[in-house]
Design goal:
Helix content: 25-40%
Radius of gyration: 16 Å
Strand content: 15-25%
Number of helices: 7
Oligomer: single chain
Shape: globular
Distance between the termini: 11 Å
Low-confidence stretches: none
CATH topology: TIM Barrel
Largest sheet: 8 strands, parallel, barrel
Mean pLDDT: 93
Length: about 210
């Protein structure tokens, strides 16, 4: 069964809606210029409100070690997600499971780019964009994904209730990650869209 992460949670009610719909994890964004940015205190309150067995993922883009350490102390996320150009030594230095994001585009050797991150819990594949490191709602060509990736794959980038079943059938990822595809506006999730997104994944296995 494909796991589900609902990213960019900014409100307690949205985190609870994701959990009630069956999400396995939520993402908390610690990137100041993102419309989905949360403060450490906001993130802590969201995390505390979640029911058992829903993981919290802290997302960063090229943070300092001090920034990450502060979030680990205040929020205590289960997983770190590095969405920038962080070197492998930095990612593994916190002693916490981490996901490394790779933005996919033609001409980039994904296996070569990811080779140094063999200790990552998984590799998250997102669309390349000049506008932002993620959360753009843009989809990339899934045919660019190698068939022999040695780490669990988390698929992101332009996923919606309308195309996630196709993504599950074609890519067979370990998990999918959605943000803008289940929003009513930037940073505000739509409970009905979250439920529809997860329902489409579940129906893919019926």
């Amino acid at each position: 069964m494909t796991r589900v992460k609902i990213c960019g949670i900014t409100r307690i009610e949205d985190g609870l809606a994701a959990a009630q719909a069956g999400a396995d994890a939520i993402g908390l964004v610690f990137v100041g210029k993102s419309p989905r940015h949360v403060t450490p205190d906001q993130a802590r309150e969201i995390a505390r409100a979640l029911p058992p067995f829903v993981s919290t993922v802290a997302l960063f883009v090229n943070p300092s070690a001090t920034e990450v350490a502060a979030i680990l102390k205040i929020v205590r996320p289960d997983v770190l997600q590095f969405h920038g150009e962080e070197p492998p030594e930095f990612c593994r230095s916190f002693g916490v499971p981490y996901l490394k994001t790779f933005r996919v585009r033609p001409g980039v050797d994904l296996l070569q780019s990811a080779a140094s991150y063999g200790d990552a819990q998984g590799w998250l594949l997102d669309a390349w964009s000049e506008a932002a490191h993620g959360g753009t709602g843009e989809r990339f060509d899934w045919d660019l994904i190698p068939l022999d990736l040695p780490r669990p794959t988390v698929l992101a980038g332009g996923l919606t209730p309308a195309n996630v079943a196709e993504a599950v059938f074609k890519v067979r990822p370990w998990a999918v990650d959605v943000s803008s595809g289940v929003e009513s506006s930037k940073g505000i999730k739509d409970a009905a869209k979250i439920a529809a997104f997860i329902k489409e994944i579940r129906n893919a296995y019926v």
